[in-house]
Amino acid sequence: MNAANSSTALDxxxxxxxxxxxxxEKIRRxxxxxxxxxxxxxxxxxxxxxxxxxxxVTLAGETSFVPCxxxxxxxxxxxxxxxxxxxxxxxxxxxxTGQSWSNxxxxxxxxxxxxxxxxxxxxxxxxxxxxxxxxxxLVIFLTFKSLRCTRIAIHVHxxxxxxxxxxxxxxxxxxxxxxxxxxxxxxxxxxxLHIALQYLMLANYAWMFxxxxxxxxxxxxxxxxxxxxxxxxxxxxxxLPFIITAAYATIRGSTLEDTxxxxxNESHATWFLTVPVLVSLxxxxxxxxxxxxxLLTKLHWNSANPAPIGLRKAVRATLILIPLFGVHHILLxxxxxxxxxxxxxxxxxxxAIVSLQGFCVSILFCFxxxxxxxxxxxxxxxxxxxxxxxxxxxxxxxxxxSKDVYI
Length: 407
Known about the structure:
This protein is mainly alpha-helical. The chain is built from 11 helices and 7 strands.
């Protein structure tokens, strides 16, 4: 990976040096052919290189245009930058710097930039809300001893993967997305953060798969040792995503155009992530379909052995969450073309669906969990009884003191 990234930086540097040297060579030839500032008795501005683009010789009083540089983050290569040649045969100089100035402001779609800021703010807000809800849920799960069982243990790992994922996305949006210098420099830490994000995203879906698998084992297979099942869940939830992410990083890191700008751009290597996610979602739906059939046919309310209400609620929550998790990846195949009216709705909908997944998980698996409600009620009841006993003890003590009166 390090060798590939070093090669990428070197290739970019060589490409830029070639662009500069080609322009400087053009300037040198122009100086030989036209040593004066006139062409056929007309004044002109000489060929110039401003660090981003090469500006050809331009007649005085005219404006030169070049395509916006594609290597600058946020610039649209379909747009054009311009540079004015004044009547005296000199390039326009910026009043503040006194240096020749090229106008690249036209390379940016200001309205689109404002919309992207709105979308990024929506992502950030959703991730902050989800992270807060997930941390509260984890505190609840780890505080009450009555909640310590295999099903809740899986919830804890699912919530942990979501909390870490949301935190990583918050860092990504704060320090990478809005900083063009970071994207241009393409430092090691931002590439590592991208890989970590993909790993945590896969861990989310892997633990969601474990949720469905556990329900299947609990209601269909029945006789499975919890410690053995948890070892399998650890391997699936944390180990398998690591292997898949390593393969993704290796494939993507070997392709030059996929290793630029903190790996933010789309890549063919993304299939290494999308396919496992879709397979896990389909498998989870299969497990839950079987579990639902068992609940409806064998463990219904009127049967001799009805399923516990906690398990029923867990099945219902999982059935809601799995399609919710799958919507984002299904939408990838329906992404509208850029600048089309449908893109606005798509981006806003995707931002809400993706960033609030952790919040939805918290509501369905914790805040609406009957076991959690029972733990709070039991704790409240114990506190109430403790307070009653203390009041009774204090009353008894006062009465005994009032009787012990000596004359």
